[in-house]
């Protein structure tokens, strides 16, 4: 999965910038910036579109790609790929299992799962590969109720604000409005 929103491109200035930088300059709302960065983290890494680098959340903080204000939330989102450590057993568990045990709030988990689906499929933290929703259900990654919920496009969260036409969109809808960066091929809002 690499078809995620990597940054913001300002056509009038022919300038690209990171999502966090765009938020700091008032081009994105903090809520949209967080959702876009969580989607990157839930896909495996954060992207610096200016330097074309892929970084872990901890590396991104050290490099100044994100601020301390988003760090804990993005670490949690990164767990969607790497798995979450079950505090009582020390075992690695999936995003859905963490949600069921109430380590992750349901709405947050759904947003992360939607981002994974939009960028290539549900990530198995044990095997580090992506599978379609139906296959994830068949393998027991989540229950039938969650499978049906995630499979219905009407249930997608409209958590992304597109600053161009001023609309609230799903991550997938916003993703479809992006343009590829001619230098890197990364998708830019």
Topology, element by element:
Blueprint: E1 5-10, E2 15-17, H1 19-24, H2 30-42, E3 46-48, E4 53-55, H3 57-63, H4 68-82, E5 84-85, E6 92-93, H5 95-100, H6 106-118, E7 122-124, E8 129-131, H7 133-138, H8 144-151, E9 160-162, E10 167-169, H9 171-176, E11 179-180, E12 187-188
Helix pairs in contact: 2-4, 2-6
GO molecular function: keratin filament binding; structural molecule activity
InterPro entries: Plakin, Plakin_repeat_sf, Plectin_repeat
Keywords: Phosphoprotein, Repeat
Can I get a quick summary?
The chain is built from 9 helices and 12 strands. By secondary structure, the chain is an alpha+beta fold.
Number of domains: 2
The 3D shape can be described as globular
Task: Look at the helices and sheets and give the structural class.
Answer: alpha+beta
Tell me what portion of residues adopts beta-strand conformation. 15-25%
Poorly predicted segments:
none
Radius of gyration: 16 Å
CATH domain topology of the largest domain: beta-hairpin-alpha-hairpin repeat
> What CATH architecture of the largest domain do you see?
Alpha-Beta Complex
- Main sheet strand line-up: 2-1-12-11
